[in-house]
Design goal:
single chain; alpha/beta; Rossmann fold; two-stranded parallel sheet; 8 strands
């Protein structure tokens, strides 16, 4: 596995610099922190470094800072069985990571503190099925609609896999989607787009790309 250097697709990178300024709506906005788990972050402490995204330890703070300015702060997290089909030991492309009940599956402490009670969604719990999107095996969309949410602010790990899949499903479900590029980090592996390709795909699909610093609080 290679880290995503971000040196490719300079044209797409230039377009992604044009970030929009948006005003938060505390009644109809929600944050969705995708898989901000220790296993996806660099480091030597227990659980860290299983499938690390460079800079993955920096995505939690900008997301958590929004908790008091939105209606709901939701989070997803991988909770894999030890023999999950995506692991290299079973012919998959990923090293073992975020196994249920292990330190690697724990959310970053800032995300744990920001989380709205009852709004955590475990995924990847079935041995032989991938579940990259937070919408794949949950009632997340229905619950968001019932709560009056129309816009999702999405960030997390990793940009080019679970953030991409989640944001695309959110768009398909009819939500306005804002991807916070300073609250995402990517890896590079065979068979998946780079981080910049993923962001370009999201932009072309209708998502708004911006940074947490470009959001104005009401």
């Amino acid at each position: 596995m290679h880290t995503d250097p971000g040196h490719h697709f300079s044209g797409a990178r230039h377009r992604l610099r044009r970030m929009r300024v948006l005003k938060l709506n505390p009644e109809t906005d929600a944050v969705l922190a995708v898989d901000v788990q220790r296993g996806f972050m660099p480091g030597d402490a227990p659980g860290y470094g299983e499938l690390p995204a460079p800079g993955g330890d920096r995505v939690a703070a900008p997301l958590a800072a929004l908790a008091g300015h939105v209606s709901i702060f939701a989070a997803s997290g991988d909770s894999h069985p030890a023999d999950h089909s995506s692991f290299k030991t079973r012919g998959g492309i990923w090293p073992a990571h975020c196994v249920a009940g292990t330190p690697g599956a724990r959310l970053h402490p800032l995300i744990e503190q920001a989380l709205t009670p009852g709004w955590f969604f475990a995924k990847g719990t079935t041995r032989d099925a991938d579940a990259y999107s937070a919408f794949a095996v949950s009632d997340l969309a229905d619950r968001l609609r019932q709560a009056g949410i129309t816009r999702l602010l999405v960030g997390g790990l990793v940009t080019n896999v679970c953030v991409l899949a989640t944001a695309m499903d959110a768009l398909a479900a009819g939500f306005e989607v804002v991807v916070l590029t300073d609250a995402c980090a990517a890896v590079q592996a065979a068979g998946v787009p780079t981080g910049q390709e993923a962001l370009a795909q999201l932009r072309e699909s209708g998502a708004t790309l911006t940074t947490s610093s470009a959001l104005t609080r009401g």
